[in-house]
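Subject: Protein entry, chain in single-letter code together with its fold tokens

Category: Structural biology, sequence-to-fold work with a learned token vocabulary.

Notation: Tokens come from a learned vocabulary of local backbone shapes, not from coordinates.

Start of record: The labelled sequence and token lines come straight after this line.
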Amino acid sequence: MQYKKAVLLARTKEVRDDGAIVEVVIWRLPRPLPPSTHDFKFRLYFGCGGIDRVRYDNERGKGDHRHVNGQELSYEFESVDKLLDDFERDVDNWRAP
């Protein structure tokens, strides 16, 4: 039996002049990671000084969600393009609490 492997779609990391880090990692999986119903595994991160400011991710048993200023919120995945747009919007609009 042959197994399909996960395919890396995107991996980028930017260190900004102020020391902030923006990192995006997206994989296409051979099958959804429950409870997600889509075929993507993702981790999108924005932080500075070792502190998460904005993070989007999904994990087995927990599903798709995002973190903003330490608060975990549900996230409704629609597409990779929308995921990237939503993350960019949250990073652009981020303000310290």
User: Anything to note?
Assistant: The chain has a mean pLDDT of 91.
